[in-house]
Amino acid sequence: MKTSSNKVISLKDAIAEYVHDGDSVSFSGMGGEQCNASAFEIVRQGKKNLTIIGDSPCDVGDVLIGAGAVKKLEVAWCGYAVAGLAANYRRAVEEGIPNYLEVVDFSNFTVGLRFLAGAMNVSFLPTRSLLGSDIPKYNQCIKIIDDPYTGGPIALVPAANPDVGFVHAHKADILGNTQIFGWSSNAENIARAAKHTIITCEEIVSSDEIRMHPNCTIVPQFCVDAVIHAPFGSHPWNMPYYYAYDIPCHVEQVMAFRTREGFVKWLDKWVFGCKDHADYCRKVGWERLLELQRVERKFTKIF
Questions:
Q1: Looking at the domain assignment, is residue 153 inside a domain?
Q2: Strands 164-172 and 196-204, how do they pair?
Q3: pTM of this prediction?
């Protein structure tokens, strides 16, 4: 598929083809650019026993955990910024609801180093940032050795090569050349490190348009297996320059997640109650979504 001249397929087909029970998966996005559309489809298809490798999966991690799709986390954080730890994540760790999780702690920075190592095709990268913390004490994956050049201690973090990497982007062409405007949050290295990469994007554009701003192409076509047109694929989070954060919708969601019963009702309505991402957008309301777009573009402009 990476050599195909047209990689555009449906999200349903992409998940069915590339995501399998027991896979390790990684998602780009932090403070926006969330891969929510992809996570919801993984839940609809009932994938199980996944390992999430990531810096700070927010909705993606919490929804997948609550749906019982995850067995292991290799992350720095799973939560909603100022709203605190994700409720499903907390229930799973503390009470085993819906199942207990194996959690391997890293820092945000060292998760980024893991993706960089995977993208470089090296088995590890060194860092001093963990030496003042207790993370190496509880994470046996981190090795501390004597620096062969200075003689002082240095920590080594292992490369991450997830089975499937997901990136939600602003634009892509049918070949898979992908552009993100602003902070990419490890997207370029996730795409290079993963065995398979699935791109969801707000717009599919011509290759000529991609070439007009080549410096914005952070994921090249040779890394990509599938391209999916998924406008508002980050909702209720924002997509910088494209649409604003739907705060009322997200507050309602976070409140629902506080109890297991509330989460199950939310899941039935917004995931299982929608046959696909387009149906989800219809349920949210196209008028509401387009208003989020108007608000964002009133205050920001790109190109």
A1: no
A2: parallel
A3: 0.95
